[in-house]
């Protein structure tokens, strides 16, 4: 077995076969003028597919609600023009041998920068973060319309030839604003003292999405403990709380949980199984039985990523731990974000063991669609 073989095993998801375990993490690029992905966007994704990625998750692409995006060039996942653009992206990616699904998103009351959407931003309780008012609290009608918009986006994903859909339920955006006690103060059926009560919105979104795509189309859900508003938040403080949170989401229609953390090697509950214990995706899989995707700082050390594994450098933990965890099937897939921004051929380089070619991440590469 070569050092990186656990990464290069195929994976089956319902009827979908992935050629390896490497997923391109969803990454907002804010480079779709008028919300429409064009040739440059298709080419950007095609390059990662040609570079060997198994599954591409698109940048967050927003559902059909006023103020569902927080930057002006985030792509839409609604309307003929944008969907036609996404169809082109899917065809380009398929032509290069990878699978692809859009990450469907509503940014809630978050701020992307100084830009303001055309409509007032919306969230469960009109809060950006605890005690930070922004925008308005959603009405029953808003909530129903938002759930329907998620379902339409999922149906459109299937219709235009995408392989799956990922619902963005992480990082302090709309769905996560319902999960989080700090931003969901509602006293109706969309709020509550417990996380399972505050999960009702996500459950209803997933049920509607599942009903829209049928039983065989894979639906992924991205979740995180942390929020961009506060990296220290933990929605679930124990495995019991995590099971009570994630179990109903799987039951409602999520086939795969994409468990976002900032460093994949951080144990989720070190007080239980130590500093090298199961990570978030590991616990989520153990508790729900659903396949999971992990993520977080893979390959950021550049050449060190492989070299350290071979004993050629310091800091062996990252790749060594990734391979060990994947060989044990602690989780099923690994998403790679920033390393793939800087190097579309990152997967090929890792597969070939080409240490010299690995450069890590350079933030300057965010300036354009490399
Ligand atoms: C430029 C950029 C944009 C991102 N946009 C999104 C997004 O649209 N949706 C999402 O779920 N995560 C987003 N993320 C988080 C990534 O998907 C990923 O979880 C994070 O970068 C950690 O992985 P990495 O260490 O491999 O980069 C973004 C990250 C970056 C760097």
Automatic annotation (TrEMBL):
<dbReference type="Pfam" id="PF00724">
    <property type="entry name" value="Oxidored_FMN"/>
</dbReference>
<keyword id="KW-0288">FMN</keyword>
<feature type="domain" description="NADH:flavin oxidoreductase/NADH oxidase N-terminal">
    <location>
        <begin position="7"/>
        <end position="261"/>
    </location>
</feature>
<dbReference type="InterPro" id="IPR044152">
    <property type="entry name" value="YqjM-like"/>
</dbReference>
<dbReference type="GO" id="GO:0010181">
    <property type="term" value="F:FMN binding"/>
</dbReference>
<dbReference type="GO" id="GO:0050661">
    <property type="term" value="F:NADP binding"/>
</dbReference>
<dbReference type="InterPro" id="IPR013785">
    <property type="entry name" value="Aldolase_TIM"/>
</dbReference>
<dbReference type="InterPro" id="IPR001155">
    <property type="entry name" value="OxRdtase_FMN_N"/>
</dbReference>
<keyword id="KW-0285">Flavoprotein</keyword>
<feature type="region of interest" description="Disordered">
    <location>
        <begin position="109"/>
        <end position="135"/>
    </location>
</feature>
<protein>
    <submittedName>
        <fullName>2,4-dienoyl-CoA reductase-like NADH-dependent reductase (Old Yellow Enzyme family)</fullName>
    </submittedName>
</protein>
<dbReference type="GO" id="GO:0003959">
    <property type="term" value="F:NADPH dehydrogenase activity"/>
</dbReference>
<keyword id="KW-0521">NADP</keyword>
<keyword id="KW-0560">Oxidoreductase</keyword>
């Amino acid at each position: 077995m070569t050092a990186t073989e656990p990464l290069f095993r195929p994976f089956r998801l319902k009827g979908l076969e992935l050629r390896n375990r490497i997923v391109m993490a969803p990454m907002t690029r804010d480079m779709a003028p008028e919300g429409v992905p064009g040739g440059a966007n298709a080419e950007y994704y095609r390059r990662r597919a040609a570079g060997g990625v198994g599954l591409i998750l698109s940048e967050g692409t927003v559902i059909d609600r006023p103020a569902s995006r927080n930057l002006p060039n985030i792509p839409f996942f609604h309307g003929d023009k944008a969907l036609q653009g996404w169809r082109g992206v899917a065809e380009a990616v398929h032509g290069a041998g990878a699978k692809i699904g859009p990450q469907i998103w509503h940014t809630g009351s978050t701020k992307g920068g100084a830009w303001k959407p055309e409509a007032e931003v919306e969230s469960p309780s009109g809060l950006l973060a605890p005690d930070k008012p922004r925008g308005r609290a959603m009405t029953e009608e808003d909530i129903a319309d938002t759930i329907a918009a998620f379902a339409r986006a999922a149906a459109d994903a299937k219709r235009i030839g995408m392989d799956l859909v990922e619902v963005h339920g992480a990082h302090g955006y709309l769905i996560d604003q319902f999960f989080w006690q700090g931003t969901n103060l509602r006293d109706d059926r969309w709020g509550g003292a417990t996380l399972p009560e505050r999960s009702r919105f996500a459950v209803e979104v997933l049920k509607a999405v599942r009903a829209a795509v049928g039983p065989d189309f894979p639906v992924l859900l991205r979740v995180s403990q942390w929020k961009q508003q506060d990296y220290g938040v933990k929605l679930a403080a124990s495995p019991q709380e995590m099971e009570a949170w994630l179990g109903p989401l799987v039951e409602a229609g999520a086939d795969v949980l994409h468990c976002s953390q900032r460093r994949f090697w951080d144990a989720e509950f070190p007080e239980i199984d130590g500093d090298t214990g199961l990570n978030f995706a590991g616990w989520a899989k153990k508790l729900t039985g659903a396949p999971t995707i992990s993520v977080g700082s893979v390959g950021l050390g550049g050449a060190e990523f492989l070299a350290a594994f071979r004993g050629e450098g310091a800091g062996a933990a990252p790749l060594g731990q990734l391979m060990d965890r994947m060989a044990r099937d602690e989780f099923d897939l690994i998403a790679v974000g920033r390393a793939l921004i800087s190097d579309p051929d990152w997967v090929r380089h890792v597969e070939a063991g080409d240490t010299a070619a690995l450069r890590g991440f350079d933030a300057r590469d965010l300036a354009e669609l490399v």
